[in-house]
Amino acid sequence: MGFLRNVASVFATNVARIPLGFLTQIVLARWLSVADRGMYALLTTFSFVVFLLTQLGWADAVIYRTRRGGVSPRRALSTGFAANGAFALGAFALCCALRAPLSRAFLGDVSAWAFVVAAATAPLLTLGELLCGTARTIDRFDLHNQYGFLQSLGILLLLVALTFGGGALDSALAVGLAVQVALVVVFGTWLVALAGIEWRVDLREALASVRYGRNLYVQNLLINLHERIDVLLLAALGVSAVDIGLYAAGVSVVAQLRQVPGAIGTVLLPRLAGATEAEAAEFTATVVRPSLLVMLAAALALAPAGAIGIPLLYGSAYLPAVLPFLVLLPGVALVTVSRVLGRYFAAVNRQRAIVVLRAAVLVLNVALNLWLIPRAGIVGAALASLLSYGTEAAATMVLFLADSGQAWRAAFAPRASDFDEYLARLRGFVSRAR
Question: 29 vs 426, which has greater pLDDT?
Fold first, then answer.
């Protein structure tokens, strides 16, 4: 399957997930109190952070080791599932042992049941990510797409069913856990049937995967902490669960835009991993130029829709979420630059500079949050993200130019030809539809 076709399939799936995501957020906002919506945001963020700490970059390492290292998908999947899975389960056990101090620091008065469900979701997210990476490795983007779509659909349907039964916060968290269990079992069985399995752990392959994946692991950790740590910092600085619920509502709308760079990055690494460095640089620039224009246009269109839709669909209690939403919007559009360009550094396996940059930007984000949250609350958190996202985008562009040797205008100045192939595909699709 070609690059544009893979991009189109992943992008179409992500577009289909956007309304599912919006509907899920509406159900949560209407079903839970604003305070419980804040606790839900804290606990799902906690699950995701534990997942980030345990995924080790293995999904991308499977792609790299298979495409450039010549390792069979069977061996890469088997080694990753055993080694990465064991590490993730160990992290779950550690979380349970440290429940009291973690709750005091970040989660407040959360029940033991809710904590355990949130912690148990993390290793399943880790295994699911590995399965999606394996699907992309064997060019089965259809399985990758189905996994993501069914994840969104399953959570929405179960939440809707629970609202008729009068569930609560614990039930909403259990929905996420149940969906992840089902997906890992079904898709794990499917991919084992396609790629095969070895009933042993290849220690040499495990070490090679960790060596490659560690830089991507650190990058993914830094990227996602940058995007999500604000929720935990709000709690750590004593912001009420109600205000956190309002902030999470604004973030939930903006987060739908992240589907675009996510879709592009998902497809871009396998394409770049098989190219020369010069080809990888040229192709990355060709992708980032139209992507940024599309994201800026989407942000412009989403601004009035979100400003009207948040209080209308979530309820009038969420009106204070509109301002942080508007502040975050342009920053999330700029994230496209750093996310797409980051795949270039992964493909050519020169990641140290980008890792250092992202660490510095994360430190900047934390410092800005610590300064702005006490002064401006949830709007301060949104402003901190906007400033750090803009800094990251500008600095990543500078690094890309220095590494690739391309000129500024050649790499980033928009060209009408950037859209030629996309438009040709669109015309062909319309012609076939007629």
Answer: 29
Token pair 């419980």 in the structure block, residue: 36
Q: What is the three-class DSSP state of 108?
A: coil
The answer to the question of residue 313 being in a domain is: yes
Q: How far is CA 427 from the centre of its chain?
A: 31
Asked if 214 and 349 touch (Cβ cutoff 8 Å), the reply is: no
Model confidence pTM above 0.85: no
Q: Rounded distance, CA 85 to CA 88, Å?
A: 5
Q: Say how far apart CA 364 and CA 362 lie, in whole Å.
A: 5
SS3 414: coil
Cβ atoms < 10 Å from Cβ of 93: 11
Which is nearest to 40 in space by CA: 51, 28, 52, 23?
28
Read off the pLDDT of residues 232-263 as tens digits, 9 standing for 90 and up. Answer: 899 889 889 899 999 999 888 887 777 666 66
Question: What's the one-letter identity of residue 115?
Answer: F
The pLDDT tens digits for 330-343 are 887 888 788 778 77
Q: Would you say residue 434 lies in a domain?
A: no
> CA neighbours within 13 Å on the CB side: how many for 410?
9
Instruction: Please compute, for residue 222, the number of CA atoms within 13 A of its CA located in the half-sphere on the CB side.
Output: 26
Domain residue limits at 208: 3-429
Q: Which residues of 416-428 are buried (b: 16+ CB within 10 A; e: fewer)?
A: eebeeeeeeeeee
Query: In total, how many domains does the chain have?
Result: 1
With b for 16 or more beta-carbon neighbours within 10 A and e for fewer, the 353-366 pattern comes to ebbebbbebbebbb
Is residue 291 predicted with pLDDT exceeding 50?
Answer: yes
Beta strands in 58-189 (DSSP E): none
- Whole-number mean pLDDT of the chain? 81
